[in-house]
Amino acid sequence: MLDSNHQILTVGRSGHGKTLGALSWATLGPMHVLSLDRRTAILKDRENVTFDVFSPRDGYIKVDQKLESYLKLGNKLPFKTLGLFGVTALIDFLTVDSGKLLGAMSDSDKKSFSTGQKIGSLYLPGWADYNYVSEALRQIFYNGLFLLPCNIIVEANVVNAYDMNGKISGDKILATDKVAEKIP
């Protein structure tokens, strides 16, 4: 058994085994997964694995409430490892929240914050939304997840990164650069 808690970021392309690798931690003790990407088939009927599924429509608030309840439990968590699957979906959840919060501002405040705009029923994020998401990620990791007395495993998908000539130069986390910098 491990004698200290670990914070792990699994990074890879979709379908390349990040989830299966993360789920192997359930052999060390109970594991709970916060499924933001709603891929539950791989989680069902796994020994020592429980999970909650969240809808992007609700934004981050329900995930936050769950994390707050874990923080209140302190050392009495019912699991040894917590998985957050996946970061890309978390960014989407936070963008939904940002649209709700910034969209409720007065028109004069919206201009000073460079908020997004609504076209029909579609919300197009602006600079303030990306700043919100970036800071929210920092706070979620450092003021929330990393304070929990358990192992933390976070999944992030990658996509091709391109150089100035349009050639593939490697991989990058599926997020804007500013947001990706906040992911430990």
If you had to describe this structure to a student in words, what would you say it looks like?
The chain is α/β, with parallel strands linked by helices and 184 residues long. It is built from six helices and eight strands, in the order E-H-E-E-H-E-H-H-E-E-H-E-E-H. The strands form two sheets. Strands 1, 2, 3, 4, 7 and 8 form a six-stranded mixed sheet that branches. The chain is globular.
In angstroms, what separates the terminal alpha carbons? Answer: 24 Å
Main β-sheet: number of strands, strand sense, barrel status?
6 strands, mixed
What structural category arises from helix and sheet content? alpha/beta
The ordered H/E elements are EHEEHEHHEEHEEH
Shape label = globular
Helices and strands in order, then pairings?
Elements: E1 7-12, H1 18-23, E2 31-35, E3 49-53, H2 61-73, E4 81-85, H3 87-103, H4 107-113, E5 117-119, E6 122-124, H5 127-142, E7 151-162, E8 168-173, H6 177-181
Parallel strand pairs: 1-7, 2-3, 2-4, 4-7
Antiparallel strand pairs: 5-6, 7-8
List keywords for this structure.
alpha/beta, Rossmann fold, 8 strands, 184 residues, globular, six-stranded mixed β-sheet, two-stranded antiparallel sheet
